[in-house]
Amino acid sequence: MRSGAGLGRLCSTPAIIAFIAIAMALLPLIAPPFWVTLANYIGLYTIVALGLVLLTGVAGQTSFGQAAFVGLGAYTSAWLSTAHGVSPWIALAAGLALTFVVALALGFITLRMRGHFLPLATIAWGLSIFFLFGNLEFLGGHTGMAGIPALSIGTIELKDERRMCWLIWLVVVAALWTMHNVLDSRQGRAIRALKGRLEMAEAFGVDGARLKIVVFVYAALLACISGWLYAHLQRFVNPTPFGINQGIEYLFMAVVGGAGSVLGALVGATIITLLKQYLQDALPALLGTSGNFEIVVFGLIVIVLLQRTRDGLWPWIDRLLPHAKPPPVPDAAPLAARVQPAAASTLLEVRAARKAFGGLVAVNDLTFALACGEIVGLIGPNGAGKTTTFALLSGALAPTSGDVRFRGHSIAGAAPYRIAARGIGRTFQHVKLVPRMSVLDNVALGAHLRGRAGFLRAALRLDRREEARVRAEAARALARCGLAEFVHAEAQNLALGQQRIVEIARALAADPVLLLLDEPAAGLRFHEKEALAALLRSLRAGGMTVLLVEHDMAFVMGLADRLIVMDFGEKLAEGVPAAIQSDPAVLEAYLGGAPT
Amino acid sequence: MDLSIAALLAQDGITNGAIYALLALALVMVFAVTRVILVPSGELLTIGALTLAAFDQGHVPGTVRLVAGAAVLAGVIEAVRRARRGEGRRALAGAALWAGIPLALAALAAWMGPRKLPLAAEVAMALALTGALGPLTWKIVFEPIADASVLVLLIVAVAVHFVLTGLALYFFGAEGSRTPPFSSASFDIGALRVSVQSLLVLATSALAIAALALFFGRTLYGKALHATSVNRLGARLCGISPDFAGALSFALAAVLCAFCGVLIGPITTLYYDSGFIISLKGFVGAIIGGLASYPLAAAGSLFVGLIEAFSSFWASAYKEVIVFTLIIPVLLWRSLVTHHHEEDE
Fold first, then answer.
1. CB nearest to A114's CB, from B169, B321, B340
2. A570: which DSSP letter?
3. Measured by CB atoms within 10 angstroms of the end CB, which terminus of chain B is less buried, N or C?
4. Which helix (H) or strand (E) holds B65?
């Protein structure tokens, strides 16, 4: 049992990275030069592929232009160190600065929008830079630039490949370790939510557009460093290795290795490099040189591989490895909590809010107010405009006219992440969890705005105290909702009813003043509904205000202090449940007439 | 630059743009039905043109062996798949269908090879033969992973592009070919010489665009195909076979691509690897249309063709740089006017 857990720990990602560090420190001492050369290239490719794991695999943005960023790093250093005698280390800084500016500009143009714009922009950029390198005289045109100086650290010249191997793999190991840390942090949770869950992430305070740009720039900078190392390893550059084909190949490495995991980059870079090397040697001997067979066989292998393992090789290997059971979440000091406003003061005012989609008015001059510490049910037949109203309150939609004031400030049309920061937490009608993330991480995402740690602190593991408090907070929210036993389960493995409760726990982790629940009881069993009602009452006792859309009348009648009834986008009635139950207009809308 | 040169460049640009537009249509169609970005469209284009060139020179084109090989493979795959599902009888029928039709086409093409039939027959055969590669690719490569993520489908499509490029080199060799034009006539409008071939390219492109827009926008079957891309399971529940829809869209796209090859063949010398950059320009047009709108994709492609023609006059070394850099402001504009739905994994 103990040895099983020990073995599991040995197969954790940090342990594997440490093992790689030791192995690559020894390799140049014992391996023949050919292997050292191969290891150097695998290292350089891993650095680039790692950026793609973050950008494409995790954040869901496809880039074909990484090779161009590699070229930017290589050419900047090549030109500065040959034509101007600048130290390669200063040239590295210049290359990083240039890459930063280009990536920021490209990201700014393409990443604020969704869809297929980034792939295209990166194809365009990758092709342009390739033809530019080939046509600029001062960069040596298509023949390239030779005589690039070797790197030196102090008085040690890194002229031979063995020494470069140490430097390259130092960078690889550092990049793997910091990337693993970032993904296992506050920012990492937000990045993992970018893919297909942007709306949810923004509702918990993530500035999605900015985060996507940060991720893109980060991946570009990694590529730039790889290019700088390449230029001083080869001591010669020409445009060929920075073209669109190489850009595609980096994407191959990430996807074949497993674009969702840090070690996938390493596995992919290794497999693709060795495969190409082997095919180039073996196939001409086997089939003659009349055709370009290695590209055919290479393509076929990739097709078959992805037909067998869609997520790439690493997740497949990872399943075969033993895994230690994650320990219980240790308790930690609670995060600073909001002071709930005084009971019965006005919290939210909706004034003549209207939302029109072309000619369809989904919400028609709706006016209502919520007082602190009450539970209000928003009910109405299907299509009454309840979910649209929620979208107006949470910032997912901007009202066509009218105003929404929360704690005295107008929030109409504000970005969702700004509204979240003011203290509105919400759940979604269609559950929006990050399916492959643990339940704990999903809930911790709710506490995004209660942490401060940025990329740098996460990368260097300086965020651990804050992170422990966030995780403890998330665990407490889960325990409060009765899901303590599922803390480490993958969110996608929970039943739908449980996923709904996880959504509530996530909203609680945000420590909201106002909780918006969109059909929380749908799909719950009787006892689960009772537990949910008890939970909401205890939240009310703690001063929280709850607005819920619900179709389960028995549930909402027994729970809510007041009800607001909507029909055809307008407010039909408002009052205590008993009054609503006998309101003739409500009965007309629901039943087609009052019972006689 | 005087007016006559500008007019000449414009004619060039519009002709090329019309061909990119056809490619863009093929890409939009395949993406709309299967979510596959058809990266190998460039290879299908070259294979189409090189097949016609081989007929024109009285050879049996290498495509015959390519199609025959793929047909046998597809037949075996279909038989195994159906047999595993316990459809013993239908396994044989499926295999016979998938292998039989392409093999029959290949045999006919082999018979035609040395006989020098009229141009129209050769074009029809080149289109049919290359078109057969579409559904075969779908069956062998994409059908087993049809519900994978767009990224995985894209990477696999790139792998298919590699395979087809390598095979094109083997079957057609490294030397380039031109195909015979439909018409070498031309007439003058003022100072401008207009070639009938360009007009034909324009007319057929416009016709194809209109036909596709009608098919997908107005017919039940076209709408059914589109439904498949939005929700495979839902489409299946409504009685639409996603597998058949995929095969059909790949067939249509392959014929369209081959047709582009036939149109562009008389204008440019094509090598086994020329297709990729041509298809990229079609892809650019398709993206301008948001991978969804046929008329916008066509307009975007015309725009690409025009930019290419004029930049090759002013700064020919930087032609590709200009074409691909100018896309970025267009993207910015598109970003401001399009709305997108979030796509689940």
1. B340
2. E
3. N
4. helix B63-84
**Cα radius of gyration (chain A):** 28
- A435–B283 C-beta distance less than 8 A: no
Q: Do A501 and A446 contact (CB within 8 A), yes or no?
A: no
Find the CATH number of the domain harbouring A127.
1.10.3470
Range of the structural domain that residue A382 is part of: 346-591
Q: Does B313 touch chain A (CB under 8 A)?
A: no
> Model confidence over A209-229: pLDDT tens digits?
899 999 999 999 999 999 999
Domain count, chain A: 2
Chain-chain contact of A109 with B331 (C-beta, under 8 angstroms): yes
User: What is the ipTM, given to two decimal places?
Assistant: 0.87
| A308 and A415 fall within a common domain | no
CB pairs under 8 A between A and B: 142
Q: Are residues A148 and A37 in the same domain?
A: yes
CB contact under 8 A, A299 and B161: yes
How far CA B335 is from CA of A201, A369, B134, B302, B341, in Å, comes to 21, 37, 32, 20, 13
Same domain (yes/no): A395, A457? yes
- Is B155 near chain A, with CB under 8 Å? yes
Domain end among A251, A286, A320 = A320
Q: Has residue A140 been placed in a domain?
A: yes
Prediction pTM value: 0.86
Q: Do B165 and A256 touch (CB under 8 A)?
A: no
User: Could you tell me the two tokens for A293?
Assistant: 């067979």
Whether residues A388 and A242 fall in one domain: no
**Is B342's pLDDT higher than 50?**
no
Which DSSP letter does residue A429 get?
A: S
Q: Does residue A354 share a domain with residue A299?
A: no
Chain Cα centroid distance, residue A41 = 29
Q: Are residues A136 and A206 in the same domain?
A: yes
Handedness of CA A536, A538, A540, A543 (dihedral sign): negative
Closest among A113, A134, A96, A291 to A212, alpha carbons compared: A113
Do residues B90 and B82 lie in contact, with contact meaning Cβ atoms separated by under 8 Å? yes
Alpha-helix residue ranges (DSSP H) falling in B35-62: 41-56
Largest CA distance in chain B: 72
Quick check: A56 and B151 CB within 8 A?
yes
Q: Please, which residues have CB within 8 angstroms of residue A420's CB and are 6 or more apart in sequence?
A: A202, A203, A204, A205, A394, A395, A449, A510
Distance of CA A494 to the CA centre of its chain: 21
Residues A302 and A363 placed together within one structural domain of the fold: no
- In-domain check, residue A341: no
Determine contact: B316 vs chain A, CB below 8 A: no
Do A308 and A391 sit in the same domain of this protein?
no
State whether residue B152 sits within 8 Å of chain A by CB.
yes
- pLDDT, tens digit, 9 for 90 and up, residues B85-131: 877 777 777 788 888 889 999 999 888 878 888 888 899 999 999 99
Q: A352 versus B179: which is more confidently predicted?
A: A352
Of residues A114, A121, A196, nearest to B331 (C-beta): A121
Structure tokens at B334: 């598109």
Interface test with A, best of B331, B340, B344 (most A CBs within 10 A): B331
Which among B161, B284, B325 has CB closest to A120?
B284
Q: Which residues of A touch B66 (CB under 8 A)?
A: none
CB A514 within 8 A of CB A350: no
Count H helices, E strands: chain B?
14, 2
Cβ-proximal residues to A143 (8 Å cutoff; 6+ apart), any chain: A238
Owner of token pair 């365009």: A124
Band (pLDDT 50/70/90 cuts) for residue B229 is low
Q: Single out the residue in A320, A335, A366 at which a domain terminates.
A: A320
Question: Do the beta carbons of residue A374 and residue A319 sit within 8 Å?
Answer: no
CA atoms within 13 A on the CB side of B159: 27
DSSP string, A147-177: -PPPPEETTEE--SHHHHHHHHHHHHHHHHH
